[in-house]
Design goal:
- The chain has about 120 residues and is low in regular secondary structure.
- The chain has one domain: E3 ubiquitin-protein ligase SopA (Pectate Lyase C-like, 3 Solenoid).
- Helices cover about 5% and strands about 5% of the residues.
- The strands form two sheets. It has a two-stranded parallel sheet with strand order 1-3.
């Protein structure tokens, strides 16, 4: 699935994209509020400035994804793979990060404490 098809289906009212392969897609600034990307492959995807509040990204592979300045307020990110992801200035208010994986290459906003959000260093 490419970025245009995803946006077209989303704009037509589709919200369930469970397990889809969206690796390397450029979705900069995309409005995907409330989308279900449970278990999706978003490896290396560019989601900078994307609007993803209330979305389900549990179990998603976001390794090396760019989520800089994305809005993930109240999003579900349980057990998501965030190793190597860029999360600088990302809005994570109310987001569930329990069991989400990160490593030394994951970039967070200064003063963000992943352990206080029940994330696991891998």
């Amino acid at each position: 699935m490419d970025a245009d098809e995803l946006k077209r289906l989303y704009n037509a009212g589709e919200r369930d994209f469970t397990g889809v392969n969206l690796s390397q897609l450029k979705l900069i600034g995309a409005n995907l509020v409330g989308i279900n990307l449970w278990g999706a492959d978003l490896t290396g995807a560019n989601l900078a400035k994307a609007k993803l509040w209330g979305s389900n990204l549990s179990g998603a592979n976001l390794a090396k994804a760019n989520l800089t300045r994305a809005n993930l307020t109240c999003a579900q990110l349980e057990r998501a793979n965030l190793r190597g992801a860029k999360l600088q200035y990302t809005k994570l208010y109310g987001a569930n990060l329990t069991g989400a994986l990160y490593d030394e290459t994951t970039k967070f906003t200064r003063d963000f404490d992943p352990s206080s959000r029940n994330m696991q260093k891998f």
